[in-house]
Amino acid sequence: MRVCVTSGPLGSLLGATVTSAVSGSMSAAVGLHRRLRAVAPLPAPPPAWRGSGPVVLVGGLCTTDAVLQPMRLWLERLGYQVLVHTAGVGLGCGARGVEAVRDRLDEAADLDRNADGVRLVGYSRGGQFARVAAAGRPVRALVTIGTPFELYPVGAGALLPVAAVTAAGTLGVAPLATVQCLFGPCCATFRRSLRLPVDGPFTSIYSRRDKVVPWRTSVDPVADNIEVEAGHLGLVSSPTVLQIIAETLAPAAVAA
């Protein structure tokens, strides 16, 4: 049973405070990461990497547009039309997150006037939403980055934000993920679907240096698993990751 201890303006204020604090911390960390670790400018992508058509880019827990900006700019440079979906910064129920991504995929399909196909890229928890949402949809290629395909193991870097969000949601402070999302019936289908086979090309990019997502949870037997050297935040701006994505989404790759 879900116990609601706050409602009305106070509950909304507390919920907004939790969301703002967690997202603000992530954005601040990204800003610091960019200042301390300058990434060398990438060369112009070769013709073989260039593509066209829509790409849905899905963020995860605490992932704002600022976090995804390096990835979005790179995909646009490759020639894709990018639809960014931060999924309420990944703080909500998994089942609702999947439905939101499916709506975004439908929107992308409407934009695919040249039949290039819709490509789907998910970062962190956003990769969970992306994988489950791709089932039954004509997705040309799926790439997940630093995504765990198991719900329960989390790295030390994620313990505090996950605990804060789940506690606030369970207490009814805001429409956030709850304990029921982890163990109850509301997200049972979502949890079961995290390891189901994927139709079409599926690539999982992971790093053993990831302190947020245990790397073993990102390795999947039905995926092309690619290991890189980067921390969790660095995965969205790593030149190696950007090159892998370019090659994986390229028309020649998805047509193979």
Describe this structure in words.
The structure is a single chain. The protein has helices at 8-36, 65-77, 94-111, 125-134, 156-170, 179-183, 188-193, 239-249, 251-255, and strands at 54-58, 81-85, 118-123, 139-145, 202-207, 224-228. It is α/β, with parallel strands linked by helices. The chain has a domain at 51-157 and 190-255: Alpha/Beta hydrolase fold, catalytic domain (Rossmann fold, 3-Layer(aba) Sandwich), CATH 3.40.50.1820. Strands 2-1-3-4-5-6 form a six-stranded parallel β-sheet, sandwiched between helices. Helix 1 (8-36) packs antiparallel against helix 5 (156-170) and helix 3 crosses helix 4 (125-134). The chain is globular, with a radius of gyration of 18 Å. It starts with 7 loop residues before the first helix and ends with a helix.
Overall shape: it is globular
CATH superfamily of the domain at 51-157 and 190-255: Alpha/Beta hydrolase fold, catalytic domain
According to CATH, what is the topology of the domain at 51-157 and 190-255? Answer: Rossmann fold
CATH architecture of the domain at 51-157 and 190-255: 3-Layer(aba) Sandwich
Largest sheet: 6 strands, parallel
What is the average of the pLDDT values? 77
CATH level 1 class label of the domain at 51-157 and 190-255 = Alpha Beta
Helical content (DSSP H or I, runs of 4+): 40-55%
Give the structural class.
alpha/beta
The topology string of helices and strands comes to HEHEHEHEHHHEEHH
Strand order in the sheet with the most strands: 2-1-3-4-5-6
- Tell me the span between the first and last alpha carbons: 49 Å
What is the number of strand segments?
6
Strand content: 5-15%
Task: Quickly count the helices.
Answer: 9
**Rg of Cα set:** 18 Å
Pick out the low-confidence regions. 1-15, 35-39, 155-160, 162-179
